[in-house]
Specification:
four-stranded antiparallel sheet, seven-stranded mixed sheet, 0% helix, mainly beta
Length: 126
Amino acid sequence: VQLQASGGGLVQAGDSLRLSCADSVSGRPFSGRTVGWFRQPPGKEREFVAAVKWSGGTTYYADSVKGRFTISRDSAKNTVYLQMDSLKPEDTAVYYCASGFPITSSVRRRESYRYWGQGTQVTVSS
């Protein structure tokens, strides 16, 4: 499994970006897995952003992004998206997608995810 995250870039505050996450090597479907997005701001630890359970589509969000970010999945393309609206300078970070089989109570813990992508940089200027 090798996850490929893409879609990052440099934008201004208030703009939008859409990140994508796909399994670029095996092409295996995400079925049965939970796919999460984490981010690591400069000089800080990696933190949870959002996650979606592929089966059923239950979503989870960090309080800091709730109402601004939307995680979704496309079964036909075997891809998970993170739509980021109303971006703020504090959203600046390297964004990583990850997949695994966390139990519900551990969805927000990075230790619960086995497979990680390489990260994509998101920079929001004020």
